[in-house]
Fold this protein.
Amino acid sequence: MSIRIICLAIGYVFGLFQTSYIIGKRHGIDIRDYGSGNAGTTNMMRTMGTRAGLITFAGDCLKCILAVALVRVLFRAQYSSMMHLLVLYAAAGVILGHNFPFYLNFRGGKGIAATAGLVLSFHPVMAVLGIITFFGIFFTTHYVSLGSLAVYAGLMIEMVIFGQMGWFDLSQNQLIELYILMAFLTALAYWKHRGNIRRLLEGTERKTYLTKKSQQWALTGGVRMARIGILGAGSWGTALAILLHDNGHDVTVWSIHEEEVETLNTTRRHERKLPGVEIPEGIVFTTDMKETMSDKDVCVLAVPSPFIRSTCQKMKQYVRAGQIIVNVAKGIEENTLYTLTDIIEEELPYADACVLSGPSHAEEVSRRLPTTCVVSSRTRKTAEYLRSVFVSPVFRVYISPDMLGIELGGALKNVIALAAGTADGLGYGDNTKAALITRGIAEIARLGIKMGGKPETFYGLTGIGDLIVTCASMHSRNRKAGYLMGQGYTMEEAMKEVQMVVEGVYSAKAALELSRKYQVEMPIVEQVNKVLFENKNAEEAVKELMLRDKKIESDDTQW
């Protein structure tokens, strides 16, 4: 028994060499934080490209071959009669070391490449049969997992058949021991592939194609590929789908509207919301939320802010523990005064809620015009991962720990943008616009800091940056609604004319309630609410703002 333990230990030491983990660390990532979270060949190929996957396969295969070779050299003379059994013990040790490396908290790969090394070392005929089986199934179905599972089943059968034919030169008891050990390795492989088996049965397992696009990988400056589900096929959801697809990710977009999905899948255009923009063929649109969310690395929540809670409730049955959910809408819930990530964390407490925000009109992002945003999460690790997912030559992403400040800046600037649009509708000039922007950010910062946000956030991209673009841009639905109200439209008429959700209208009451709750003076927000909900004349509201009590510009300034 001692010789068996020695061979198992030799194999385990070799198995600790984690090729994919080492390659990932050389490029600043832990491969187990990407894709399927598996430190093996398939995840490496999907995440960092075909070349990285092939290097991983070679390294993991070679470590088994070397372990077996060492056992042969050390024990051939003394234990020649049981060498096939000792070889299998050494290979089993490699597979265990690969699956359960102690220095990586026992989180390794699945051992497929190491098993290939086992087969190559064990018997040449079995190696040929295994190669034919794997590639035959892979090129027929494009399922790597199905090919791997078939090889394991085939190996077990071949061991029994060839053993009974006398190919392994072992006693009957040693043959039974060999079968038991191989059965254990097969059971381990099937257990490690239990998620793949479930997805194969459900029809949701992802196929792998060795195309040029799949070869974009981080070693050559490419983007690590992830599986992305986007909830919401409006202008922003579709623009982000285009961005993420350009980055080399696998993107599926959900919409509740069947007609919208059919149009997007057939015409590859979103003419009403993104005129002139062609949607790449690789992006899938569906009304099936399960398809959109199952087995995804990141879920992007891109529905309008009033529908965040109801959408989260629909998502519950598909969200796994630790699922990254990135909110890209901007708003505050009127009844609870919750930010949108507060809602996500309440409805999906086991998910990892994050936010992406900044001066980023969908119309420009979809046309690949340079844009900069900020992403925030509860942990720096998740924020850095999301930065790597979204960043591109035309989409620069910063990270920040101030999730609250980012969300408040994004929501409250919409209210100020309504005021700026109203001023434009009244025919006022640039002086008025500048006053509204600068005094508006002062209001937003006062409230945000009182609530716990960081001052620098409100004077950065998601504060003053987002406010400027929303108040000044022809793409801004909030500015457009305000403009129409300045021209005499009612709030209802303006929203109908815009034909998209005007989130500032929904955030205005919440902003006013927050100002009262935290005892922060917000005169622009107050006047916007009166125009929206009390039918106050817009021109009178501007006059009232101009004739307020005389103030010092900054309370912190000393003479």
